[in-house]
Amino acid sequence: TNVIELEGVVKRYQSADTPALGPVDLVVAEGEAVAITGPSGSGKSTLLNLVAGLDRPTEGRVSVGGLRIDGLGERGLARFRRERIGMVFQFFNLLDDLTVADNILLPAQLAGTPRAAAAARAAELMAVLGIAEHARAYPGRLSGGERQRVAVARALVNRPALLLADEPTGALDTASGHEVRELLLDLHRSGQTVVLVTHDLALARSCAERTVSLVDGNALDHSDNRDERDER
Ligand code: ADP
Ligand code: ADP
Question: What residue stretches are annotated with the ABC transporter domain (predicted)?
């Protein structure tokens, strides 16, 4: 089964004569990890926003996790994002007034998961990601690498079909960046479907078996990273 299917997808912003994206066809199978790269302005955010259900295409079909989302209204998209997508951002986007545990629990609460089940899931993720000792701390006390681990736990709490990561190592020092790369690779190995938007070639090579390169809104190159990755 495919987690992402884009068919003839075009995104045109008002007043622009050339599309910001497309037409693009893209399929990501369950369990795959795909990196999306390209220079500034090439359409990476536009593509990510369409897949995340943050925006709708001008033309074409977008299916994610088996759900056709290009025709959904605002409420349907909000529900889709809550239930099927986990997102990780460059600057973590954690809520500084909530503890680590409460940040991770929040999406489960918004999805209506029973309290005990949500707490068990959060505890499991904090243990796996090595942040259990920080459960009652506030994000401001943690290092960048630790904060990104919290963000990954929050992204996974509802068991999303797809983990989307937008420059997840972009704000981290070398050591923390390495830590987060290893974490994403572990998640991929455990079967999580991952799409990364990144300039970090080390991240693309270590974690993704395919790289989709965007140039002027067109997906030009679907190179195979597996050989390089397997040499590590
Ligand atoms: P990237 O993420 O690769 O930097 P974007 O997807 O942000 O690229 O941008 C692709 C193109 O679409 C650029 O030419 C950009 O100026 C344009 N664009 C992006 N967002 C908007 C918007 N909200 N309104 C108008 N044009 C936009
Ligand atoms: P609205 O016009 O109120 O925004 P949508 O067209 O987005 O509604 O969605 C219509 C209905 O489809 C929703 O009220 C909901 O019952 C169902 N729906 C939307 N998204 C999902 C989803 N991710 N999973 C299951 N059902 C959904």
Answer: 4-232
